Amino acid sequence: MSTVLLVEDDERLRRALALTLRARGYTVTDVATGREALAEASHRKLDAIVLDLGLPDLDGLEVIRRVRESSALPIVVLSARRDESDKVQALDAGADDYMTKPFGVDELLARLRAAVRRSGRGEDQRVVATPDFTIDLGRKTLTDRSLAPIHLTPTEWGVLETLVRANGLLVTSADLLSEVWGPGYEEQTNYLRVYVGQLRRKIEPDVTRPRYLLTTPGIGYRFDASGATPTSA
User: Fold this and answer.
1) What's the pLDDT score for residue 16?
2) Model pTM?
């Protein structure tokens, strides 16, 4: 479970976003000012910040700069400022991503997950050992039984990591596509067939009888770390 600091001076939006994030499993601290944000960031263990730029006391850019003086904490900006120059300034100040209002909640959640994942924070630091290979989510490495590295492309890693982080639960094809490729790709199931096939050739002892990357036809995929039950593809 990731801990998020939500910084938004619009009370109705802040409450709605906090409820949405909590419903998706995040622990949320929400504040309305830049000074409150800096105080929370300085003493609370966080995994990410969702930050509005138009705050009543400090400009959001100043908040980003001050956070960056002591922390690499992921920062996703959520702002009504739509000019390219505003986006450039925020990214140059140290923001990891920038979204403009109005926004889609699913896209915000996907960008937040991606920012946390890239940072190596939260549950991404786990090591998952199977009978045939070991996945280190923190270091983003995959090794075989002899500890030799298994090379994955960034997209292959994204698919594998998303399935591993689901802790054995089924991930629908639409959710997997949205997580790895982004919003708008939910119908591109052919992408998954290609990349899951490539992953199986790299990690499965028998590609024709997958043990780790399991398919539920017409629904999605699941990662089984035990590798104990072969199944048809």
Assistant:
1) 92
2) 0.56
